[in-house]
């Protein structure tokens, strides 16, 4: 039997922020946090908590260290949908930027809109994904127009700096739709948001916003991104870009990258795809596209000369549709009536914990694409990876000391709300280390980023798991070491 004990340390009591959280539904009934329409995201270093309500179309940001909270009601029109996802995005990276300049909150809607807010409540950016047809790649600002009204199921920002000596890719924000996944490079996104933040600080943002919104729909710039169709084996309920992978066999080496994506859904419990950045079309297609465009331009010019028609009033240019990049299906697991529900990645992306509708949890090796472990009897469970210090000698030492990554063991925290417990299992095939009772109406959370130090430094910031009790407002952290 796994040991039981007090393995949680209180970080803050957010009861003082009850007035702010009430805007998202807190206090209306016991267990309000169990409502799937209530979305939560813990900020970097667990310094702020974002709570959004889809039914109320409101975003609440509560500082964990105390102070006044912030309530934002996005001005969403009928064609812009309701809030469906929320995530924190760092603006400063590893330099450890502090305060409101260091982070932004990303909000996704069920109509495909992305909104970015500073923690002061300023709207930094607003954009929507366009429909996917052959065309150039760009994430374009669109005003009051959603050509591809798809629900954003999940926003996930991932750091990849712990493997800086390897070609492991860059930081990224992934956007998951039903059957579609998009990837925004972290550097491009942070550059745009930092610029927008400086505009907001200049106090000219409001006037500039109204002027640009009225005069030029594209004046806010473009953020490059990639988008792929991952519906070969059916629509997905959750998905993630797990990392880089080698190109297919017999394919010429190039500078283009290939990513591996894992999806879960109703038709296939788990599926895997190779995502290619190569967006070039065939030579014939390129010639035809350029030739047709040139021919049409020539005919249009000749017709104006021959008929000398009055010049038509200029029209606002509509955003060009966008194309899917190449996707290659790798494998899938179909096991009706089992349906995949949630997907959680380890820090390196080499392991994925997948929950399904029958109460099972599958541990998947994302490189070999094989299942390495299976748990049963965990309906409605949620999982997060955590790093635990198992060296009792170092943990009990009275002398302060820095721990390296090798001192920590990767574990999986499983929150089983029906059982009212949190279990911690050692990876990959280790035993159960902890069983912690937790009250109903709680959620396990994890900061989106750690702002970890340089990989060549001796210090290391481990991956931590927090427990938020919505009814009491208590935020606790799972202790790093096991006594």
From TrEMBL:
It comes from the Eukaryota. Residues 1-24 form the signal peptide. InterPro entries: Rab3GAP2, RAB3GAP_N, WD40_repeat_dom_sf. Pfam families: RAB3GAP2_N. Residues 309-339 are annotated as: Disordered. Residues 32-128, 142-445 form the Rab3-GAP regulatory subunit N-terminal domain. Keywords: Signal. This is Rab3-GAP regulatory subunit N-terminal domain-containing protein. It comes from Eragrostis curvula (weeping love grass).
């Amino acid at each position: 039997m796994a040991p039981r004990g007090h393995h949680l340390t209180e970080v803050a009591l957010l009861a003082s922020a009850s007035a702010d959280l009430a805007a998202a539904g807190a206090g209306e009934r016991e267990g309000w946090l169990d409502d799937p329409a209530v979305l939560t995201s813990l900020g970097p270093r667990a310094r702020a908590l974002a709570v959004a309500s889809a039914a109320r179309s409101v975003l609440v940001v509560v500082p964990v260290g105390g102070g006044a909270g912030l309530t934002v009601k996005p001005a969403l029109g009928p064609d812009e949908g309701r809030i469906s996802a929320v995530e924190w995005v760092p603006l400063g990276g590893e330099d450890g930027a502090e305060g409101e300049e260091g982070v932004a909150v990303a909000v996704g809607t069920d109509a495909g809109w992305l909104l970015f807010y500073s923690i002061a409540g300023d709207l930094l950016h607003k954009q929507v994904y366009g429909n996917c047809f052959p065309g150039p790649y760009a994430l374009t600002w669109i005003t009051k127009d959603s050509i591809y009204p798809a629900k954003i199921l999940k926003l996930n920002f991932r750091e990849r700096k712990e493997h800086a000596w390897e070609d492991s890719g860059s930081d990224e924000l992934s956007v998951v739709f039903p059957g579609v996944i998009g990837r925004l490079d972290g550097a491009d996104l942070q550059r745009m948001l930092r610029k927008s933040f400086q505009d907001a600080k200049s106090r000219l943002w409001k006037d500039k916003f109204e002027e640009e919104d009225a005069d030029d729909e594209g004046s806010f710039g473009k953020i490059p991104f990639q988008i792929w169709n991952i519906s070969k084996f059916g629509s997905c309920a959750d998905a993630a870009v797990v990392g880089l992978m080698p190109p297919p066999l017999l394919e010429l080496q190039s500078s283009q990258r290939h990513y591996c994506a894992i999806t879960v859904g109703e038709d296939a419990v788990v599926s895997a795809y190779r995502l290619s950045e190569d967006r070039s079309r065939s030579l014939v297609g390129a010639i035809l596209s350029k030739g047709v465009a040139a021919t049409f331009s020539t005919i249009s010019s000749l017709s104006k000369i021959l008929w000398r028609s009055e010049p038509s009033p200029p029209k606002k240019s509509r955003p060009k549709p966008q194309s899917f990049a190449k996707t290659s299906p790798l494998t899938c697991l179909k096991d009706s009536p089992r349906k995949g529900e949630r997907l959680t990645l380890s820090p390196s992306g080499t392991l994925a914990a997948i929950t399904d509708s029958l109460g099972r949890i599958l541990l998947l090796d994302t490189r070999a694409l094989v299942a390495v472990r299976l748990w049963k009897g965990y309906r409605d469970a949620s999982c997060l990876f955590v790093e635990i210090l198992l060296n009792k000698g170092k943990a009990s030492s009275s002398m302060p000391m820095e721990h390296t990554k090798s001192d920590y063991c990767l574990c999986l925290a499983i929150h089983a709300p029906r059982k009212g417990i949190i279990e911690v299992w050692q990876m990959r095939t280790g035993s159960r280390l902890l069983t912690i009772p937790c009250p109903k109406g709680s959620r396990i959370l994890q900061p989106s980023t750690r702002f970890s130090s340089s990989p060549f430094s001796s210090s290391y910031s481990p991956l931590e798991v927090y427990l938020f009790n919505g009814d009491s407002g208590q935020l606790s952290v799972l202790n790093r070491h096991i006594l």
